[in-house]
Design goal:
This protein is an alpha+beta fold and 346 residues long. The chain is 25% helix and 40% strand. One of its GO terms (molecular function) is efflux transmembrane transporter activity.
């Protein structure tokens, strides 16, 4: 009997130790503002990009540039067969010389008739006819000059010239092809300001326009970041991709080459929610939940929550918690229902 009592007495410290609370760390839920961010890939494009085409039709006989060539304003990029236009210019020049000769003759005749009419050697009707012939010759000369200018313009149109300094980004025709007037032959990206262009998925716009400023970084050098502003948003959704085309205005001193792949951090309109670290999340029959401590009983209850956004290192709770709730953030896996907790605030 004495031995049994002694053993019973030795077991008392273990019972006291088991009754102490489970140590955990808690954090008071605080409502704050956050902005969902979507990292979307895009590329650098010229702000001004135009298609170049001949103003007359014909057969291409030469090409002086290729895709990637840097050109200057006025450079001849392609040439059409201009034999027909050269013939038209020769005919117009001959017509002009004929009109000039005819006008000279009509001028001499008019001057002679004016001298004869003063001597009453001819009738007034003859002078009037000479004056009419002179006016007709003057009109013919003006017409011949206009026809020659038109023929020369048509000849110049057989040379496709760069309309600005820039880089050739596309070639749509080859030597030997027969093109029509205004058919796009080359595409030129003008030197100067650059844009970053993105195809943003439709769902990102459901809750409103994103923030005007977007942080852009190149994929090859993520540490180099610039702040660009949204310059243009397409008014319609691309039916094939379900995306919206967005152009950002890059700073003027940005030296990224055309086609540089970039990442844009688009920020959605601001929202409110409760931010908790990853260590606070638990599960209630497969649904997200957190342990909430009752400060009076020091016991925790598993409470289902609605998560609005998962982020790197934390998550945003949009429903299921209220400001001031004590949420277990460390020691979650050790918490059990109706278990007394020894909690400390963060």
């Amino acid at each position: 009997m004495v031995i049994g009592l002694a053993l019973a007495g030795c077991g008392e410290p273990k019972t006291q130790a088991a009754s102490s609370g489970q140590p955990v760390r808690v954090e008071a839920a605080t409502l704050g503002e956050y902005q969902p961010v979507a990292d979307i890939s895009g590329e650098v494009d010229a702000r001004i990009q135009t298609d170049l085409g001949f103003r007359v039709g014909g057969k291409i006989i030469s090409r002086n540039v290729d895709v990637g060539s840097h050109v200057h304003k006025g450079d001849v990029l392609m040439q059409l067969d201009n034999s027909e236009q050269l013939s038209d210019v020769a005919i117009a020049e001959a017509s002009l010389r004929s009109a000039q000769a005819d006008l000279k003759q009509k001028n001499l005749a008019f001057d002679r008739y004016q001298a004869l009419i003063s001597a009453h050697a001819i009738a007034q009707q003859v002078l009037d006819q000479a004056q009419q012939d002179l006016a007709t010759a003057q009109g013919s000369l003006q017409s011949a000059e206009a026809q020659l200018a038109t023929a020369r313009d048509a000849l110049s149109y057989t040379s496709l010239k760069a309309d600005s300094d820039g880089i050739i980004t596309a070639r749509n025709v080859e030597i030997g092809a027969v093109v029509t007037a205004a058919q796009a032959a080359l595409t030129i990206a003008h030197d100067g300001p650059r844009d970053a262009v993105f195809d943003v998925y439709e769902a990102f716009f459901l809750e409103g326009e994103p923030s005007k400023d977007v942080v852009v970084s190149s994929i090859s050098n993520p540490n180099r970041k610039v702040t660009a502003s949204i310059r243009e948003t397409a008014p319609v959704i691309d039916a094939k991709t379900g995306t919206i085309h967005v152009k950002l205005k890059l700073p003027d001193d940005t030296d990224w080459a055309l086609g540089t792949p970039v990442i844009g951090a688009f920020r959605a309109p601001a929202k409110t929610g409760i931010t908790l670290p990853w260590s606070a999340i638990s599960s209630d029959n497969g649904a997200p939940a957190v342990w909430v401590v009752d400060p009076n009983s020091k016991k925790a209850t598993l409470r289902p929550v609605k998560i609005a956004l998962y982020r790197l290192g934390d998550f945003i709770v949009s429903d299921g918690l209220k400001t001031g709730d004590l949420v277990v953030t460390d020691g979650v896996k050790l918490v059990r229902p109706d278990q007394v907790l020894d909690w400390k605030g963060r």
